[in-house]
Amino acid sequence: MEYDPKRNPLIETFLATNEQINLSAVRDYDGVYVKHILDSIELQKVIDLTILNENAKSKEWLFKVADIGTGGGFPLLPLAILYPEVDFVWIDSVRKKLQAISDMTNTLNIKNVRLERKRIEEVKEKFDVITARAVAHVDKLIPRVHTLLKPASLLILYKEYKPDERNDMIKILTQYGLTLTNEHRYSLFEGDFSRVIYTIHKVL
Length: 204
What we know:
Blueprint: H1 9-20, H2 29-41, H3 49-58, E1 64-68, H4 76-82, E2 87-92, H5 95-107, E3 113-117, E4 127-133, H6 138-145, E5 149-160, H7 163-173, E6 178-186, E7 195-202
Parallel strand pairs: 1-2, 1-4, 2-3, 4-5
Antiparallel strand pairs: 5-7, 6-7
Helix pairs in contact: 1-5
């Protein structure tokens, strides 16, 4: 996803939508690019969804990625644009957010996103990859989302790096048949807080 300082359709669409419904405190063009888009596509440095999707196709199953409680459409929208061949499902229970994301996908002509207005506990589907960006503390999030994971699937957590929360996560993963396989530490700009993407593998 290239950055055009004069025009980026996703940023323009997000800023216009954010004026109508408060999706994010970030309200400037460069801020949206750095703090939302760059943060979302940092996942490229961790896993390649194209390869995972092709592997699934070779075994004749539909590869699906779910984004849980996406904040203002991130990482959902940048990833859907970056990987048009991958099917994404957005899950959230807030009607206004659902409508906002729906409007943005229509404006941007994004065809590979399906929206589900449900609480996590109401979802019956299972997914190959689940992403969650700054959604909840791990001790509340993992017990809620683990049932949505297929065997050998991945849970991707975008978090501010906090040692105490990491310790809490390690303690509860084995209870749900999960194991931490990668943690990618990064910052987006000088003076930024320490960020991390945890890759968690569902063993069974």
